[in-house]
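Students often ask why inverse folding is considered easier than folding. One informal answer: many sequences map to the same fold, so there is more than one right answer. In these notes we will look at a single instance of the problem. The structure comes first.
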């Protein structure tokens, strides 16, 4: 009897997309889980079909990149757990096109079905990032206009100008990524866990 793995919503897939070398990628382990194949099989297909996987579709992380990712995941409790401990080689990173090519090479019903959700996740992430860029552009334009207004109309008090700057800085701070919550090191009594 074939086991049925439930489909993963695009939001959860988007949460597994990383930015490495300025590319949005899914690591081989995550893609293999989504496509319901062993990571080893996915990577074998990449090695057997090098013409289908150029550098802009898939690349192997360096040991330095793996170390950086491990340190990021160790400090962030919101990230999915990674199981790189027993690996001999650094993971492969698949771009949107590489993830689609992997689905076609694997040619399993699950891979073909989930590839649609993978594409939607990449598209959603692209839209979010584009929205931040547009907001940043508008903030810069607003800042320029208020500075020009101050220069033209000296009647605008210095404290009002400072307030405008504070608002713009606060908006920029909201756009930046939040700091991951840090867990205390060592034993934490149960009563402190509930309160803090």
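Output (designed amino acids):
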């Amino acid at each position: 009897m074939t086991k049925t793995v439930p489909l993963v919503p695009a939001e959860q897939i988007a949460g597994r997309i990383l930015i490495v070398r300025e590319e949005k990628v899914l690591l081989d382990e995550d893609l293999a889980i989504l496509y319901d194949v062993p990571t080893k099989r996915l990577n074998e297909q990449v090695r057997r079909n090098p013409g289908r996987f150029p550098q802009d579709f898939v690349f192997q992380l360096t040991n330095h990149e793996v170390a950086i990712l491990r340190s990021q995941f160790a400090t962030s409790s919101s990230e999915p757990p990674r199981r790189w401990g027993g690996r001999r080689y650094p993971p492969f990173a698949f771009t949107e096109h590489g993830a689609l090519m992997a689905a076609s090479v694997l040619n399993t019903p699950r891979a073909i079905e989930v590839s649609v959700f993978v594409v939607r996740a990449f598209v959603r992430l692209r839209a979010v990032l584009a929205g931040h860029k547009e907001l940043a552009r508008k903030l810069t334009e607003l800042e320029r206009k208020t500075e020009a207004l101050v220069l033209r109309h000296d009647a605008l008090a210095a404290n009002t100008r400072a307030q405008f700057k504070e608002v713009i800085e606060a908006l920029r701070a909201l756009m930046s990524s939040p700091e991951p919550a840090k867990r205390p090191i060592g034993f934490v009594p149960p009563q402190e866990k509930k309160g803090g």
